[in-house]
Design brief:
- The protein has about 325 residues and is an alpha/beta fold.
- It has a domain at about 5-190 and about 225-250 and about 295-310: NAD(P)-binding Rossmann-like Domain (Rossmann fold, 3-Layer(aba) Sandwich), CATH 3.40.50.720.
- The protein has helices at about 15-25, 70-80, 95-100, 100-120, 155-175, 195-205, 225-240, 255-270, 275-280, 300-305, 315-325, and strands at about 10, 35-40, 60-65, 85, 125-130, 180-185, 185-190, 210-215, 220-225, 245-250, 255, 280-285.
- The strands form 3 sheets. A 7-stranded parallel sheet has the order 3-2-1-4-5-6-10, sandwiched between helices. Strands 7-9-11 form a 3-stranded mixed sheet. A two-stranded parallel ribbon has the order 8-12.
- Helix 5 links the parallel strand 5 and strand 6 (about 180-185).
- The protein starts with 7 loop residues before the first strand and ends with a helix.
């Protein structure tokens, strides 16, 4: 069991949606006496405004830089002597990966390789890799992904994350590197980039734009509130077995069309808008190439070994997300 309360952590991609939420979650733990070094290149998905509340916290430091820069990683390690890496930094948008796979290979594969080489040089460091359920491919209407499911990525994004997973576990086996991996289902919550489904549909509901859905809208996703995800990572860092993989899901499946319906209902209620008029703006567009049908996670391993399960209901998390965008 690792002593998280006094750990020095390098958080990669800490200005992004999930990384910034994890940093905020950790610093909200009043007994956390360690340090957080946020390393982020501040590409389009990174936003330091997400961390305004903690910017002056003496336990927090920000460094602008690229995880592919091996010399920079070594320099930071020599200065800060961190003992844990929480690796969020990644290109994550499937549509972007279809248009430009190269960026995804560079960041998700070579960036992870660069961090693993740091682990090889300094075996005392533990790294936790944030991965995705998309590495498993998709499912029919029945069944769940387990940690033993075969990999079958459908998009360049998913393939790049699968490669990062395989590299990470290979370093554990070949070099004895201390690593853990978590596969998360679809995250949502405050400060998510507006290219993602939920914030995009909320903003379009408020702006008067059309609400476009790929294909029939029957694709199914398992939705996980971002703070529940942060709490899962914290407990994996604390209790997770070396070389182990954990599936983290919200255990709440909805079709994309159902998600949009929920958004319309909540936005119309909060802003006193005409729900029927909002529903009339929903249109279907040509489906995305290679679009996975369904993701669903078996989270029994993390429940039994770590003692984690999701707490925030979808509607509760959705209201928090809408209120953040409105305000």
């Amino acid at each position: 069991m690792r002593n998280i309360k006094t750990a020095k952590m390098l958080v990669t991609g800490g200005a992004g949606f999930m990384g910034s939420n994890f940093i905020q979650y950790l610093l909200q733990q009043t007994d956390f006496q360690g340090e957080i070094i946020n390393l982020d290149l501040l590409t389009y998905a990174g936003n330091l405004d997400n961390l305004q509340e903690v910017d002056k916290d003496p336990r927090y430091f920000f460094i602008k830089g690229d995880i592919c820069d091996r010399m920079l990683l070594e320099k930071i390690y020599k200065e800060k002597q961190f003992d844990i890496i929480v690796h969020f930094a990644a290109e994550t948008h499937v549509d972007r990966s279809i248009d430009c796979p190269k960026t995804f290979i560079e960041t998700n594969v070579f960036g992870t390789y660069s961090l693993l080489e740091l682990l090889r040089a300094h075996p005392s460091i533990h790294m936790h890799l944030i991965s995705t359920d998309e590495v498993y491919g998709d499912l029919p209407h029945v069944g769940f992904f387990t940690e033993e499911s075969n990999y079958a990525p459908s998009s360049p994004y998913a393939a790049s994350k699968a490669a990062a997973d395989h590299l990470t576990l290979s370093y554990a086996r070949t070099y004895g590197s201390s690593v853990t991996i978590s596969h998360a289902s679809n995250n949502y919550g405050p400060n998510q980039n507006s290219e993602k489904l939920i914030p995009k549909m909320i903003e379009r509901s408020l702006s008067g734009d059309t609400l476009t859905i790929y294909g029939t809208g029957e694709h199914i996703r398992d939705w996980l509130y971002v703070e529940d995800h942060s709490r899962a990572i914290y407990h994996i860092l604390e209790k997770g077995g070396k070389g182990q993989v954990y599936n983290v899901g919200g255990a709440y499946e909805l079709t994309n069309l159902e998600v949009v319906d929920h958004i319309i209902d909540k936005v119309s209620e909060i802003k006193q808008l005409d729900a029927e008029q909002l529903h009339s703006r929903v249109i279907q567009v040509a489906d995305r190439p290679g679009h996975d049908f369904r993701y669903a996670m078996d989270i029994s391993k993390i429940k039994e070994e770590i003692g984690w399960m999701p707490k925030v209901s979808f509607d509760e998390g959705l209201i928090k997300t809408i209120n953040t965008i409105i305000n």
